[in-house]
Specification:
This protein has eleven helices and two strands. It is mostly helical.
Length: 302
């Protein structure tokens, strides 16, 4: 299919502009969510050390730290600084590497010993959620901003996390279906659908195929969950009779917003492995172009 070059370039520029805007919005959401997690960690650290007593063993905020005030205060401060650092290009790389390492280490050091069962719901929540957020943090800089091995390892960690998330939908199908608001029909259908979507996205990231669509789809999925499942319990937006109002659910809100924003932040820079090997940019189902050096710099290095 022969397309005039000027029309092709206009299509590509429009696509790249849209992806840049979406990526910036995603990074903003991701940064604000990390700051929120850090602030909540600081608040819970104070509460746990002053009123909940010595039997309160875990800070109820991702990455589920032991209730040791000095440790929780330190981690909370680091999370706030990393979240703020993600907003600025100069500090993006160091903030991303620090945040990813912190989430991974906390997940492995504190959560794995408490949750040794790989396929349990607790293992999925307590271990894989911080690892997934850490992987998104490592992927936040473009592939040239961090070592190639770390970029690849974080992509595989994210893929593994998403696949396990999807499998968990089938393990606790009835429970997850019960989380769907009553005003949304077909609870079981959506639970199965999102389980398949998780697994498909994980395979996509692992194989390097349709990664951009996977990131967009996962981000949209978490966006829908944010506004329909996680925000109403804390703010009761929809004024549903009998709906719970639980401020402690803010941690869940920050987690899904981080996964939502982090996924969309990747969409601009992810391309199929085939396109990367050919040095091409895909702008449509059957349209790819070979960018010149100047064009590549002007569009992808903004």
């Amino acid at each position: 299919m022969n397309i005039p070059r000027d029309k092709t370039l206009n299509q590509m520029e429009g696509t790249v502009t849209w992806l840049i805007m979406l990526g910036r919005f995603g990074r903003l959401l991701f940064s604000l969510a990390i700051i929120g997690i850090g602030v909540e960690t600081l608040i819970c650290s104070y509460v746990s050390s002053h009123s909940l007593g010595p039997h309160y063993q875990v800070v109820p905020v991702i990455p589920w730290l032991p209730a040791i005030p000095s440790l929780a205060y330190l981690v909370g401060a680091i999370l706030v600084l990393c979240g703020a650092g993600l907003l600025f290009q100069r500090t993006l790389v160091v903030s991303s590497i620090t945040l990813g390492a912190l989430m991974l280490l906390c997940g492995l050091a504190f959560d794995v010993p408490r949750r040794p069962n790989l396929m349990s719901a607790e293992w999925r929540t307590n271990v894989l959620e911080p690892i997934a957020i850490g992987s998104l943090a490592w992927l936040a800089p473009r592939s040239g901003g961090i070592p190639r091995w770390l970029h690849r390892a974080s992509r595989y960690l994210l893929a593994f996390s998403l696949i396990v998330f999807g499998i968990a939908h089938f393990q606790v199908l009835t429970f997850i279906a019960s989380l769907v608001p009553v005003w949304i029909p077909w609870h079981w259908f959506w639970t199965v659908f999102f389980g398949v979507a998780f697994i498909s996205a994980g395979v996509s990231f692992a194989a390097g195929f349709l990664q951009r669509w996977a990131a967009l789809g996962v981000g949209l999925m978490f966006a829908l969950w944010t506004v329909t499942i996680h925000v109403p319990p804390v703010l009761n937006f929809f004024r549903i009779p009998g709906a719970t109002q639980d401020p402690d659910k803010w941690s869940d809100v920050f987690i899904v917003v981080a996964l939502w924003g982090g996924s969309w932040a990747l969409a601009r820079d992810l391309r199929d492995r085939r396109d990367l090997s050919l040095g091409q940019i895909r702008i449509g189902p059957n349209q790819t172009i070979q960018p010149t050096a100047g064009l590549a710099k002007s569009t992808f290095d903004l």
